[in-house]
Amino acid sequence: MLNRFVKAGELNRAARGVFVKPKHVSKVGAVMPSAEEIAAMLSQSTGETIAVHGAEAARQLQLTTQVPMRFVFYTSGNSRTLRMVNRSVTLKHVNPSRLVLPGTVSGLIFSALYYLGKEHATIETLEKIKQRVSKKEFTAMFNLMDRMPAWMSDLFYRY
Length: 159
Description:
Layout: H1 2-8, E1 12-15, E2 18-20, E3 23-25, E4 29-31, H2 35-46, E5 50-52, H3 54-60, E6 71-75, E7 80-83, E8 88-93, H4 105-120, H5 123-132, H6 135-140, H7 150-158
Parallel strand pairs: 6-8
Antiparallel strand pairs: 1-2, 3-4, 5-6, 7-8
């Protein structure tokens, strides 16, 4: 039945068992949902934990000016690529210890620092992060020190 909707152009098949309905906007035509909306929908339907990739987290926290060209998310499920009409969303399986509080500012900070690594995550980096998030969100990171790798918890301890 869904195959008929795909052939009629009412639905797009993103992956096996995953369908996306584009929104129709006058003067523009069919507009696909954003990558974040697709990831959130997939997380709800499959029960997987899905978090923003570290490169995107670093960009959102203004730690880098580079803009990732591909949409990549970390997942607790299998690695796979969802292809839509003009974009693809890659879900990359990672160890569950890297999926700390997805969808929160603390999870965003954790992901960005993990992406930067121990060579590039410094006290100055923490200062930049502190300026961009609320004090409450920044101090919440200290409660996560037991879930951090040793180098990251040492960084917060030195801070």
